[in-house]
User: Which sequence fits this backbone?
DNA sequence: CTGACATATATCAGACCGATACAAACCGAG
DNA sequence: CTCGGTTTGTATCGGTCTGATATATGTCAG
């Protein structure tokens, strides 16, 4: 799924500037679904103009810098629906938090708990972003299906983190230092070949 | 989180070849956490050798091609724990499936249901991968915490998809064709500025 | 009136992805 | 017994994407 398709998708609902498209993916309705950065969006929008999949006009604003507002064309809509017809790749998660936590047994327990707290705060923010938007009102059925899927996943993550955090405070002696680990986990030879 | 750190993490538990590291992230214990491709892994392993964060030896196998087995060094462990000390970036999800589904109201309902079915099958496979591995036995506490988090998220996704799929079969008339859409959602002017 | 913050566009070096190529070995079907 | 398909395994490369940075306008608080 390339940046051009993602931008076309953003423009399907409404005309938007590059900055606004970015906000749809960061904190907006696409934030639980996909991620794309400025460095991909602006070049992609240029390509959309080249292919006449979008048009652009400058909008002056009061109290803000001007912005370039892009609108999708009929050709753009056709190209978008065509792009949607490819079989989707499986979901890809990139969680630095979980990756670090998966080595939490090598870290001081206090650090682990701090990470979990940060993780909780992160998902609380995401959930409140959703509720602040409040796009609940009269979504078409499939959009509602996707919307509620995201909310369900966030709420599940939060509930798990909150209820199981306590287990980590009660558990047996943690590794006190990250300079020394027990060598039990280190398999240096044998077992292979 | 760059490929070098991800490879070091993989080597923390066990020595491994590039191919084996890839499998840890595709279907293996890291599959719910992070994703990294061959095109990143092999160059990263070369860099690890250069920096003496890993050593390498060729292992002959019976009935299989030779493989190059990498082992993390003490300097590598130090570098890895150092890398873990940075504050983690927020989770990034990339779901082509959800992105396509979020435009499901523009698509024939049968296509949407087929997509949901594929999505369900996808997560069923992931869950059975986890249970096939069965690394449940005696994980250290924080690893268990992360492990069960992944299982919980997968099970929640499956339950949501299964129970709410039925709603999409009962609902009001779907868009019959993807060549025509109602123009109601298309805001071409006004409302901005 | 200074600094911090939000809005807004744009670029670019470096990192990464996905596809591809190559190769060795297995296995089932015809 | 060989043909094609699958698994294991290493490696590279073009095209794409990221994350940081630069630039600029405007608000608001202190």
Assistant:
């Amino acid at each position: 799924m390339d940046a051009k398709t993602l931008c076309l998708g953003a423009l399907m609902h409404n005309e938007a500037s590059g900055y606004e498209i970015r906000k749809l993916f960061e904190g907006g309705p696409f934030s639980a679904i996909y991620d794309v950065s400025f460095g991909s969006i602006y070049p992609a929008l240029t390509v959309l103009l080249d292919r006449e999949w979008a048009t652009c006009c400058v909008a002056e604003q009061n109290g803000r810098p001007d912005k370039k507002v892009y609108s999708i064309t009929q050709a753009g809509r056709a190209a978008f629906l065509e792009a949607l017809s490819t079989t989707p790749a499986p979901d890809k998660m990139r969680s630095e938090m979980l990756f670090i936590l998966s080595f939490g047994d090598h870290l001081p327990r206090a650090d682990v708990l701090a990470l979990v707290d940060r993780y909780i705060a992160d998902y609380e923010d995401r959930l409140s972003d959703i509720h602040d938007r409040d796009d609940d009102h009269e979504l078409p059925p499939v959009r509602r299906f996707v919307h509620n899927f995201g909310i369900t996943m966030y709420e599940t993550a939060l509930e798990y983190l909150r209820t199981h955090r306590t287990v980590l405070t009660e558990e047996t002696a943690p590794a006190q230092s990250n300079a020394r680990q027990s060598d039990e986990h280190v398999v240096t030879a044998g077992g292979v070949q």
Observations:
- Chain B has two domains: 3-84, 96-170.
